[in-house]
Amino acid sequence: MNQYLTKNDLQKTLMSIVNPLRPFYKQEVGKLHLGSHGTVYSEDTRGVEAFLRPLWGLGPYFTSEDDEELLETYIQGVTAGTNPESDFYWGDVTDYDQLIVEMASLSTTLLLNKEKIWERLTDTEQTHLANWLIQVNEHEIPRNNWYFFRILVNVALKKCGRPFSQKQIDSDFDVINQFYCENGWYFDGEETQFDYYISFAIHYYSLVYARFMAEEDPERVKVIKERATKFAQTFKYWFDSTGEALPFGRSLTYRFAQVSFFSALVFADVEAIPWGEIKGLISRHLDNWQKKEIFSTDGLLTVGYHYQNLVFAEGYNAPGSPYWALKTFLLLAVPDEHPYWSAEALPLTIEKRTLALPESKNFYQYNQDLTHLQAFPAGQFVMYQNHPQAKYSKFVYSTKFGFSVPKTDYWYYEGNYDSTLALAKDGHYFRPKDLDTAYSILEDRIIHEWQPWNDVFVKSTIIPLETCHVRIHEIETKEELAAYDGGFSVPFHGKLPEADANKIVASSEIGTSSVEGVYGYQTAEIVRTEPNTNLFYKRTMLPYLKAVIKPGTHLLISIVSGVMPNESIDKPVIEQQGERIYVKQQEKMIEINVGCRRMK
Question: Which of the 8 DSSP states describes residue 571?
Answer without folding.
Answer: P
